Design the sequence.
């Protein structure tokens, strides 16, 4: 509930808008609409280019919840627009990037994060690549060592050497 | 009537495929020549039946036969002819029909051009190919029949998804399918070899062209899809790490690994069991890709044509084919003893490193793609894995690959000394570092992405040049040029493809780092200065296309008073499908693209306008096309055109038992 109160504190009409967003979410999921991306509108943009750039950077990390694999910066959906405005409010209020992302995650859950956190089971996801690489390199080295240590199969047997000598003499 | 005949042909193809999968296999096991020979006419017959079925469906689309439910759902009389034809595969049922048609095409090609193959191997390959056909024909007939009629035919159809009504996307699926399904040949050869218990250089020489062809098609298909996303989705992104994109990218990575490891088998008779495993996995990833796209189990922007119940069927197919092949592999792989030995520093080792990097990169894409599903099922966590993860986890592998590539391709086989091998590359190394430093100083204060991209790209392109230079031997330029012209096409293919990789890499890095974006409200007649260009919104007009309404803007871009380009971005609405699309106005250039998008009309008058300058954008796809060209060059090598076994048919026809 404290999260909800915060929203009220930040902006009076936000609660209603978030309710609408939730409604839109269910509606959109039901209809399964896929829209071409349109992204940020001029009205939403901040005047300070540095802050706007930061808002962009943060927005790229946040999923548009009603879309299929789009960040809020890429989406035309109303919810994405709401989140863009929310992010810009927080940035203007002086939050750091991490604080804004935490703020949004607290309200929408980790589903909103396009870069999954590295906590708990997600460690498997993050470590899979490096561990596989090291494992594969280790196996390869062992394999190559063993192969290299083995005598060359191309080496001729005594009979063959003798026969070769005969042939060469001709 | 023709529709019913098409349906009947589809059923006949199913039975022919059954015969093709069973009879030659028994024949090969028993040594009955007559039974083995059944594979060839069966493969041809299957292709003919499926060709007829596909033609029947195409005819229904072209003539707008609205008694077919598929045509009603995906077509409209007002739709342009190109998209009526593309509409055949712009939906689930039709695309699966195209899938089996291409499968049959590859099977028939193996039957026609496989004259040089040992009879037994050919019979087994055709049989496995037939079995894949049986499974997918059953899938179509039982779960996704394209020939379902309606009781009452409506007057008009519901139109094709407007996003698909685009020339880039019209040809995207056929190329991807040629790639996906082409890998079924590698799979069939792998399974046949496992049954046979024997993999040798001749086998690799047979597998490699099929893999190479599949890889070339996949490259073109992926490039087309990415190019489409760039101009159609309205903000100039070219890759989204969408599950469906990943579905096509994973087989691409694995087949790239496979076509490199097959070289080692062909030249040195090493890495045999690994190559067989890759061949199985490559097709496995194609099936996983088909599963992801067709089941819709992973949410993605590709919302069209999915149905979970069909997903279960494909999952079973996946389990049977990949599970079966892997079991067979576990049983028989031990029998494939490698012959060639090689030292730690050798081209073989470099190719192993290539395989490790590509396979692990593919695995990273795979785990990232399925992780949301795994997390939800196993850990009860609903989470997303998006581009930030893939960028961070995947890119290092490509960077490493680019670093070792020129080195690896110049190393001699078997045993090498690093110092001597590196010598021809010192110039390339110095030049690329210098160019990177230059880029770095020119763009101070921005990310290190572009300089790194420049270093790697130059290193790859010059490295490819050094590779070619070294292969021409010694002496005067004239002699070298003569020798270069006479080099095997496979050598040229390698050099060209590697250079293409560098070009794509640079395009990606430069465009990501240097894109300039400007979003603003513009009144008609207003001029804005953006990144050195004067952009004027000349006019915005309403109009009408064949099956859509459009809002079309005219924008003039000038530099220092001279007109550079005139752009016509559009916003379309397709009333039948009730969907909007954006058509960006793009001026393509070698060094930069100018990219304009028209947005909504604003309340206070004027229009929301987005304008981008995208440096080196076209290099991304140009590099991909060059890679594909390299693959095609290598494919045209004389070695593959002359049937591998034909010349020594007397000695190689029957494997020792």
Sequence:
């Amino acid at each position: 509930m404290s999260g909800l109160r915060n929203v009220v504190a930040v902006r009076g009409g936000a609660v209603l808008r978030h309710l609408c967003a939730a409604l839109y979410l269910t509606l959109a999921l039901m209809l399964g609409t896929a829209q071409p991306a349109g992204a940020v509108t001029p009205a939403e943009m901040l005047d300070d280019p540095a802050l706007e750039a930061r808002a962009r950077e943060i927005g790229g990390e946040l999923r548009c919840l009603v879309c299929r694999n789009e960040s809020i910066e890429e989406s035309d959906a109303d919810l994405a627009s709401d989140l863009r405005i929310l992010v810009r409010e927080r940035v203007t209020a002086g939050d750091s990037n991490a604080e804004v992302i935490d703020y949004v995650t607290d309200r929408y859950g980790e589903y909103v994060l396009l870069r999954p956190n590295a906590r708990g089971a997600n460690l498997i996801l993050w470590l899979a690549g490096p561990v596989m690489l090291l494992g594969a390199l280790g196996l390869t080295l062992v394999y190559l060592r063993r192969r290299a240590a083995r005598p060359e199969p191309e080496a001729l047997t005594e009979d063959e050497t003798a026969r070769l000598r005969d042939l060469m003499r001709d | 009537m023709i529709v019913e005949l098409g349906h009947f042909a589809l059923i006949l193809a199913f039975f022919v495929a059954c015969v093709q999968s069973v009879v030659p296999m028994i024949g090969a096991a028993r040594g009955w020549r007559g039974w083995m020979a059944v594979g060839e006419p069966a493969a041809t017959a299957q292709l003919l039946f499926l060709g007829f079925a596909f033609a029947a469906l195409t005819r229904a689309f072209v003539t707008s036969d609205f008694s077919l439910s598929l045509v009603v759902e995906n077509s409209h009389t007002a739709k342009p002819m190109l998209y009526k034809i593309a509409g055949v595969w712009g939906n689930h049922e039709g695309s699966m029909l195209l899938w089996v048609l291409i499968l049959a095409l590859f099977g028939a090609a193996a039957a026609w051009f496989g004259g040089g193959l040992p009879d037994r191997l050919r019979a087994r390959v055709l049989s496995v190919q037939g079995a894949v056909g049986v499974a997918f024909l059953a899938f179509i007939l039982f779960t996704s029949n394209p020939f379902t009629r309606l009781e009452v035919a409506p007057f008009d159809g519901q139109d094709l998804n407007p996003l698909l009504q685009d020339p880039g996307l019209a040809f995207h699926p056929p190329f991807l399918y040629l790639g996906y399904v082409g890998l079924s040949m590698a799979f069939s050869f792998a399974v046949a070899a496992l049954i046979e218990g024997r993999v040798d250089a001749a086998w690799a020489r047979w597998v490699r062209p099929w893999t190479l062809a599949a890889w070339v098609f996949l490259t073109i298909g992926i490039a087309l899809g990415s190019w489409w996303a760039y101009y159609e989705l309205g903000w100039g992104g070219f890759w989204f790490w969408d599950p469906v994109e990943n579905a096509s990218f994973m087989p691409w990575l694995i087949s790239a690994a496979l076509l490199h490891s097959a070289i080692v088998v062909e030249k040195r008779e090493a890495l045999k069991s690994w190559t067989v495993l890759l061949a199985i996995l490559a097709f496995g990833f194609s099936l996983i890709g088909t599963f992801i796209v067709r089941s819709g189990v992973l949410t993605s922007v590709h919302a069209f044509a999915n149905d979970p119940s069909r997903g279960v069927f494909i999952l079973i197919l996946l389990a049977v084919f990949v599970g079966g092949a892997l079991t067979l592999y576990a049983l028989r792989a031990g029998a494939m003893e490698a012959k060639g030995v090689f030292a730690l520093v050798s081209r073989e080792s470099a190719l192993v490193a290539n395989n490790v990097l590509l396979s692990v990169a593919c695995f990273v894409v795979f785990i990232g793609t399925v992780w949301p599903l795994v997390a939800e099922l196993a850990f009860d966590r609903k989470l997303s894995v998006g581009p930030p993860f893939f960028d961070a986890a995947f890119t290092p592998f490509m960077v490493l690959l680019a670093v070792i590539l020129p080195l690896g391709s110049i190393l001699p086989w078997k045993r090498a000394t690093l110092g001597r091998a590196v010598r021809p590359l010192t110039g390339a190394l110095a030049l690329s570092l210098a160019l990177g430093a230059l880029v770095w100083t020119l763009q101070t204060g921005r990310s290190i992405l572009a300089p790194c991209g420049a270093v790697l790209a130059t290193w790859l392109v010059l490295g490819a040049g050094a590779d070619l230079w070294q292969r021409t031997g010694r002496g005067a330029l004239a002699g070298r040029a003569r020798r270069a012209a006479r080099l095997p096409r496979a050598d040229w293919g390698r050099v060209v493809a590697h250079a293409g990789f560098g070009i794509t890499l640079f395009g990606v890095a430069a465009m990501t780092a240097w894109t300039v974006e400007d979003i603003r409200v513009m009144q008609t007649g207003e001029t804005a200065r953006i990144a050195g260009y004067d952009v004027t919104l000349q006019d915005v007009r309403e109009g009408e296309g064949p099956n859509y309404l459009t809002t079309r803007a005219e924008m003039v871009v000038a530099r220092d008073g001279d007109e550079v380009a005139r752009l016509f971005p559009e916003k379309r609405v397709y009333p039948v499908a009730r969907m909007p699309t954006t058509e960006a106005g793009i001026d393509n250039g070698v060094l930069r693209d100018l990219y304009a998008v028209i947005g909504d009309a604003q309340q206070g008058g004027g229009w929301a306008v987005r304008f981008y300058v995208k440096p080196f954008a076209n290099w991304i796809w140009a590099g991909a096309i060059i890679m594909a060209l390299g693959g095609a060059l290598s494919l045209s090598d004389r070695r593959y055109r002359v049937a591998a076994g034909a010349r020594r048919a007397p000695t190689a026809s029957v494997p020792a038992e």
About this structure: DSSP finds 23 helices and ten strands in chain B. Chain B touches chain A through 65 residues (CB under 8 Å). The first strand of chain B starts at residue 516 and ends at 522. Strands of chain B lie at 516-522, 527-530, 533-544, 549-559, 562-567, 570-574, 579-583, 585-587, 592-601, 607-615.
